[in-house]
Amino acid sequence: MSMLRRDFLKSASAVGIASAVPLASAQTPASRPTTRPESPGMIYRNLGTTGERVSAIGLGGYHIGKSPDADASIRLIRSAIDAGITFMDNCWDYNDGISEVRMGHALRDGYRQKVFLMTKMDGRTKESYNKQLEQSLGRLQTDIIDLVQFHEVIRMEDPDRIFAPGGALEAAVAARQAGKIRYIGFTGHKDPAVHLRMLEMAQKHNFHLDTVQMPINVMDAHFRSFTKEVLPVALKQGVGVLAMKTFGDHFILDSKTVEPMEALHYGLTQPVSVVITGIDSPQILDQALTAAKTFKPLSETQVTALLDRTKDAASEGRFELFKTSSRFDGTAANPKWLG
């Protein structure tokens, strides 16, 4: 508990830390991809049209803030990086900032240069986005974040708020011009219609989104399918796709219709840049690494058989609770975060 308290105090004071973080040069780095070390046994893919190469397995940020042992979480992050995982996921609101604090510590001693660092902002206004971004920069102990995504775009009005005058997009573009962030994307897990609205708004405003993060798993095809409805549109627009909810937290595995390795290989078979998966122990890290080492794209016959096996269980989103309940909606529980 004392470790959690220290994590929390560090998170709470991060806004003060951020003011001391020097800014990178005021460039437009989106056209300047960064080269990182690559390891045998890991898969690397292009991130949309950014020119960046990242690991096809991404380390999910939420789970690293849950353990009461901060040092163990930091060791786990570094072990993942040492094994070739270069894509780091996080969010301003994960575990009251503890996840970012721990990742910031893990990325010291030369590790920051080895990874593509992503985090997310809940703020929908320019003011709230800027405040959260400064906190994240401080917690992550970096002067530039590779990718910042608008988090939990799950309501039909969210895209309009983000693109409105004085909205979060203005802050993101200004932060990119100032050299604080490199790429801009968005996430969501509720309904494909909201994602399509966001992509439509981007085109309307002549703005290119670099990434989109969304549920892609063995049950998604049967209910409010992001894979069927959003993935083709994103690919057509050159938006890098980040897959999440591979296991639907643990609920998809609880259905007993699919094994972890099958679920990971299904995600990796899709035309996505990264499959982001929660890693909270050395055993789960080994599972993710094994999935990469043993991966061969599933054939059309294998995909069909897998989807047939999950069809009944997937009915009405029974095991995709992020689509059908507010269980995973951090911003619903804390609307003040939106600004």
UniProtKB/TrEMBL annotation:
Residues 1-26 form the signal peptide. Residues 56-255 form the NADP-dependent oxidoreductase domain. Gene3D superfamilies: NADP-dependent oxidoreductase domain. InterPro entries: AKR2_Oxidoreductase (IPR053135), NAD(P)_OxRdtase_dom_sf (IPR036812), NADP_OxRdtase_dom (IPR023210), TAT_signal (IPR006311). It comes from the Bacteria. Keywords: Signal. It holds the Pfam family Aldo_ket_red. This is Putative aldo/keto reductase-like oxidoreductase. It comes from Edaphobacter modestus.
